[in-house]
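Section 5.1 Outputs to date
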Amino acid sequence: MMNKTTVVFFLFTVVFLFIVIAFEGCQTKTERLTKENTIIFALSGDISILNPILSSDSASSAVEGFIFSGLTKINENLEIVPDIAKSWEIKNGGKEYIFYLRDDVYWHDGEKLTSYDVKFTFDSILNPKVNSVRRGDYIIDGVPIKFETDGPHIFKVILPKPFAPILSRMGIGILPKHLLFDKDLNTAEFNTKPIGCGPFMFKEWIKSERVVLEKNPKYFDGPPKISGIIYKIIPDENARFVALESGQVDVSDIPPKDFNRAKKLKNCNVFEYDSLVYVYLGFNLKNEIFSDIRVRQALAYATDKTQLLNLIFRGLAKPAFGPMSPVSSMFE
């Protein structure tokens, strides 16, 4: 989530874009078959919660992305494309979006997803009794976005004024109203045993050890080609590298300092690609010194980004000048 204060200091501080590195595990064909077509990911930290409107950490978001689906999604070319919504219309000078939902989307418990689930999700985000970290994403200049339904398969978004990021904001995972409408979302058991409509279903979470997902055979976009996903919690970066090298995990990220070492590993595929991830130096604007824009500008001008890129990121990053990746379709 990015509120107005956040935007202010992002624009005047140091921001970097990572080139994320991932690897296919170093193991033989026989070893892979023993895992029954399951992919094992290494996570640097444990998840905190599995509810997309409440979570704020990257580990939880990574897992939620396979359990839940949104109206829209980002494809491999970083373009916004339909997901639960099969299409949409933009009316009233960009202040009204009408989403037409697929009629073949089912929750993991067999119930059918409708526009009422979608409205429930966004209404819950705006509900002050719900501790949603996403609330600011759906308030424009202090005015909350309005959400309406027109039957079970039409969902409307009414904006106080045109808002370019709205399609990407529609990608948040939708929640099942029939399971949560009478629950306290902040404390519901659902948050640790979620039911979504995405390609994988939650199976188990053993804290500080692993999270296990199994494929959803009735996924609306076709069943996954693998039987499941296991996330192993490995906080130490050296231990993650050893796990990758020994075949204990199939996919892991590693720090830039180990990039050249990783390329020399046998039976490993190294994937290097631009991402939307950025690193920034933020200031507490409640501090009298940092509230002065001239101070923030001076620090930004005095920071040698090139040196930081070479020393810390080993050239595996690009300088950025705001909270928007140049590879994003919305950058221009």
